[in-house]
Amino acid sequence: MTAFESTQLAEAGRPDSGERADAPILTFADGQLFRAGLPHRILSGSIHYFRVHPDLWRDRLERLRSLGFNTIDTYIAWNFHQRGPDEADFTGWRDIERFIGLAGELGLDVIVRPGPYICAEWDNGGFPAWLTGLPGLSLRSSDPRYLTEVATWFDELLPRLAPLQAANGGPVVAVQLENEFGSYGDDVAYLRWLHDALIEGGITELLYTADGPTDLMLDGGTLDGVMASATFGSRASQAAELLRSRREGEPFLCAEYWNGWFDHWGEHHHVREPGGSVGVVDDILASGGSVSVYMAHGGTNFGLWSGANHADGVLQPTVTSYDSDAPVSEHGAITEKGRMLRERLLAFTGAVATPVPQPGPVLPARRLEIEAAAPLLPALRGAALTSESSALRTPAPRTFEALRQDAGLVLYRAEPILPAGTSTISIRGLHDRAHVWVDGRLVGVGDEAAAATGFAVTGEGERVRLEILVENQGRINYGPLLGQGKGILGGVQIDRRLVQGWTSLPLPIDLWSEATVGLVASGGADATSVRRTGAEPGFSTARFDVDSPADAFLALPGFAKGFAWVNGFLLGRYWEIGPQLTLYVPAPLLAAGANTITVLELERSGAHLELRAEPELGPTEEYIELFD
Prior knowledge:
This is Beta-galactosidase. This protein is α+β, with helices and mostly antiparallel strands.
């Protein structure tokens, strides 16, 4: 009997085996995985509801089913649901119950990965910024303050997941405990606490841990009595051998098979050759294993949700696209890798193929003329002065965390005396990128290293208006710097003298409504507001009509770095250093008739926008070092 057949026989419920009603539907013995008592292989595809427009959830799930997957798995991003400590939201895009229910309607099993840490190249690894901003809090540990916050979050989340388990007729068949904890720490008491919290919260299905296939990582991340799995991109047989040597009697599960990879700004677009990529799936299956393909459909880091890494003293922000060279592309197309994977999975299971959904419509390519709107600094001054914090003056610049701001920009303002002659303005602890103006004149743009070295200015011994715009380019999602703060964490100096007396003006652009975006872009309520000229940074708008909504790909030739909205929805960041050249515009964001694109450019504005018929994710690079 094939794994597919065993799944079909079990879809109507468990056989009457005399087991208690809440017994897990997935069990194992002697190295074999069973579903409802029948031999089974998990053939899962990773998809994240928070990276897919909710109107496209069913479409993307249908595409994964058509590839031959019998399961999907998803992380749950804590910060996506709880922007503030008392603001848990499970509606609309955040309706995880609806997403899981849709998968169940399509006959797919669901594996849930609630963290609370998820990594996922997602901002702050899924942790809310208000949590990581608590002074002295020790993340991912037995710190009582941290565990109290996790317990409160689980009190919101688990009552929504427990009824969706297979024991209750739902599609959830397994739940992951934490995420690759062995790559971070070795607090076994923390893992045991999480295990007990899940059980007490009503989780009765199979629990498992996931870690890299090394002794170091498995030593720190596994827990006695909980099934262990591995995450990797190659050497499946070696991973299987290691797991079996350490976890006698457990089945081999690759909880993440990295068939592609993500991109940082300034890199090439990472891909894996389809034949070799699918060949590793063959190796996993030949080793008697189950697999989750990460990502099966990557989606998009809409808004400002993309995270960042940190290596060699340099921040590495992740791009807006999370295409990940997946079998189902960012815009839903079945790739060559997807076609090959479908052939292999259907041959392995013997399943009857379901039709592959047809690609959705795409708007034809066109050039969009832009209207120059408000210049950068005057527009942001006007927007920032509406903040409740605008009147609060402090000796030092306030961080994003002190301002209770997750993402976006902060405009800092002070009025120091600038000595006569040439001086240097330097910033200590800049996170992440700053524009510096003196009396409205731009004197420097740079990252942490450039700002620490400083920007040369010439003064006349008089008091000046010093303004610094800081961009949070994404919170670190992996490694020991997880949870690091944003903004100006040190101080600002003119030569050796510290600048004091600051007003810190928050600009949470990811929270702006469509009306706010339009108002700020226009320069405010004043109809006589000045407009930017030429390539001056600031706002631009473009208006266009469509007969009916369809996918589109927005290109910004000549623009340097900034943000783009469509009908008030923040698509995300763009940056001329690439590799990503277009931003994906899913059809549900457009309306029949008139549509508006708004651009906030930080450095150099272009002369027009373009809608292109295909995505352009940049020059490719075979990402092999992780796998060889």
